[in-house]
Design a protein that fits this description.
The chain is an alpha/beta fold and 176 residues long. It has helices spanning 4-9, 27-30, 33-47, 61-73, 128-138, and strands at residues 11-14, 22-25, 54-58, 76-80, 90-97, 100-107, 116-124, 144-152, 170-175. α3 (33-47) packs across α4 (61-73). The protein binds adenosine monophosphate.
């Protein structure tokens, strides 16, 4: 947690995309082979014994480590995407963001009841986008759901963590 190399490499962009938002730019973590290795190894250590069969990544920053982790865990990778992108039949969920409103979709045949699912995204702020993905995954009634973020914002009264069922394990690599 809060690895100094990750903290040093993470870029903060004030007032992006709107005034008042301190945007945590994970592209500077993805750009660094050292940071990629640290993040992937930390994630693997958390989830290696959990029997994860599917990693769900949220578009688009959740795809990067989500897919890499799925390979390392020997799990499948599922994309949660913006509307109109997935080609087959989908389930949809609309949610409020820290700045605006959005909808995400998942393929109707993405998950089954035997799956142990890890949902991954880059950052937890209000929890709205992860809650939408969580609601989608719950519709499949999988054996278990885990949640992970690279970054969790806990300052400025963010309470994203409280959006989920109490027995759902949530892990984050960096906390602000
Ligand atoms: P939320 O649904 O409020 O938890 O917002 C999380 C999603 O919005 C993540 O997918 C992030 O990519 C993006 N996001 C929200 N706030 C920030 C922020 N301060 N810095 C970087 N990304 C953010």
């Amino acid at each position: 947690m809060n690895n100094p190399t990750l903290l040093k490499n993470l870029r903060n962009i004030p007032n992006f995309p709107i005034p008042g938002i301190q945007f945590k730019d994970v592209t500077t973590l993805f750009k660094s082979p050292k940071c990629m290795k640290i993040m992937l190894n930390e994630l693997y250590e958390i989830y290696k014994d959990k029997g994860i069969t599917k990693v769900v990544g949220i578009e688009s920053r959740g795809f990067v480590l989500g897919a890499a982790l799925a390979v390392k865990l020997g799990a499948g990778f599922i994309m949660c995407r913006k509307p109109g992108k997935l080609p087959a039949e989908t389930l949809q969920e609309t949610y409020m963001k820290e700045y605006g409103k959005d909808t995400i979709e998942i393929h109707q045949d993405a998950i089954n009841e035997k799956d142990v699912v890890l949902i991954h995204d880059d950052l937890l702020a209000t929890g709205g986008s992860m809650k939408a993905a969580y609601n989608l995954v719950k519709k499949f009634d999988p054996a278990k759901i885990y949640i992970n973020f690279i970054i969790e914002l806990t300052s400025e009264g963010q309470t994203g963590r409280n959006m989920f069922d109490k027995d759902t394990e949530i892990s984050t690599l960096i906390k602000f």
